Amino acid sequence: MGSWAADPSGAFVGESFGGSGSCFTGSHPDMDVAWLRAAVGYRIHGADRLLLDDSGKVVARLAPGAHPTAGPDMASSFASPPVLTPALEQRFAAAAPFPHSLRPADPVNILGRWRPIGSNAGSPQAFVEFDENGNWSGSDGCNGAGGRYAISRAGEMIAINGNSTLIGCDNSPLPLWITKARRVGIEDRQLVLLDVRGHILGRLTRQS
Question: How far apart are alpha carbons 148 and 131 in whole angstroms?
Answer without folding.
Answer: 10
